[in-house]
Amino acid sequence: MVKSLLFPKPIRNFPGQRWIRISIRTWHLAAMGLLVGGMAMGHPLEEMQMAFWHTLLSGAVFVAVELLTSFVWLFQLKGWAVLFKMMLLAGVVFDPSRAMGYLYAAIIIGGISSHMSGKFRYFSPIHGKEVKE
């Protein structure tokens, strides 16, 4: 019962899913751009709270949409990349002196993981193979 809820076959889809993902991704990119740009211009994190929280919230909403379709995302490299980016964002709070390094690392990981081939995006280090369902 639990397995079928967490790992449905076929993966759950819902109306407007593509446009919802596009909207969330756009929100996330805009927030991250403001956060990185503001901090690069020398604004302290305290002044960038709105951009920071929008970056974190949009990432969390994107994770929720992924998990709504299936929890298989947690085992794939694309899911691991997002979780690692969220840890890097937490690093900004815990070590603001290295914020730009954390943010640049998140951008690099995001750029690579978003554009790598499906062979790698769907690869599961736990299973040692590509896992889609």
Which residues form runs of ≥5 with pLDDT under 50?
none
Shape: elongated
Distance between the amino and carboxyl termini: 16 Å
The biggest sheet, with number of strands, parallel, antiparallel or mixed sense and barrel status, is: 2 strands, antiparallel
- Helical run tally: 6
User: What is the count of structural domains?
Assistant: 1
SSE-based structural type: mainly alpha
Q: Mean pLDDT score, rounded?
A: 91
Helix % is: 55-70%
Number of strands: 2
Strand order of the largest sheet: 1-2
From the alpha carbons, calculate the radius of gyration and give it in angstroms: 16 Å
Proportion in β-strands: under 5%
Please sum up the structure shown.
The protein has 133 residues and is mainly alpha-helical.
Can you give a write-up of this model?
The protein has 133 residues and is mainly α. The chain has 6 helices and 2 strands. The longest helix has 24 residues, at 17-40. Helix content is 67%, strand content 3%. A two-stranded antiparallel ribbon has the order 1-2.
Helix and strand layout, with pairings?
Blueprint: H1 2-6, H2 17-40, H3 49-69, H4 77-94, H5 99-115, H6 118-121, E1 123-124, E2 129-130
Antiparallel strand pairs: 1-2
